[in-house]
UniProtKB/TrEMBL annotation:
Region (Disordered): 90-111
Family annotation (InterPro entries): Tma16 (IPR021346), Tma16_sf (IPR038356)
Gene source species: Aspergillus wentii DTO 134E9
Protein's UniProt name: Translation machinery-associated protein 16
Pfam family, one: Tma16
Similarity section: Belongs to the TMA16 family.
Any one Gene Ontology cellular component term annotated for this protein: nucleus
Length: 178
């Protein structure tokens, strides 16, 4: 069973020879290097996972802020309007950045990022926009009490909503076009 660096260091320091007296290629030195390397890999994997989840957490947080706590279940038209509002949420900032830019100058990095994000969300809306099912009252209640962490999303039901075909059930966490 792999151990963290702190556990290995503690175990080695209790031996007769101190950690400072280790030979470079000794077994204990190798154990320390392996444990340190494993901690680094676990930390990198954790950061990568949390970065991938962040866009979904931001999406749910936006819905939590904009939908009142006492909201009634949504119709399909209201869901479409909510998605459209979400996709166009950065339009004022894009317009401001365009107006501040001198004529003939390329767009700023921030403006490019916002436009790319808007384009990606529009494409997702065409194929199936992943979101909580606001047509169910228990999902709206769960959204109202959601505390902002990834594990708290497991108690909500999710759908993929498209412009043409409406909604279809989806899974949590989102995988492909589930």
């Amino acid at each position: 069973m792999p151990k963290t660096f702190a556990k290995v260091h503690k175990h080695i320091s209790k031996k007769r020879g101190a950690v400072d007296a280790l030979h470079e290629f000794s077994r204990d030195a190798r154990r320390l290097r392996r444990a340190n390397h494993r901690d680094d890999r676990v930390a990198k994997a954790s950061v990568t996972t949390s970065r991938g989840r962040q866009s979904y957490i931001d999406r749910i947080a936006y819905f939590q802020e904009t939908i009142p706590d006492d909201a009634q279940p949504f119709s399909d038209e209201e869901i479409m309007q909510t998605i459209t509002n979400y996709i166009n949420r950065s339009n004022p900032e894009i317009e401001q950045l365009k107006s501040e830019r001198r004529k003939g100058r390329p767009p700023s990095k921030r403006e490019e990022v916002l436009l790319q994000r808007m384009d990606a969300e529009s494409k997702e809306y065409k194929t199936g926009f992943w979101m909580p099912d606001f047509s169910q009252p228990e999902v709206l209640r769960a959204l109202a009490i959601w505390n902002g962490d990834w594990s708290g999303l497991s108690m909500m039901k999710f759908i993929r909503f498209t412009k043409e075909s409406g909604k279809q059930a989806s899974s949590f966490p989102p995988k492909g076009l589930s």
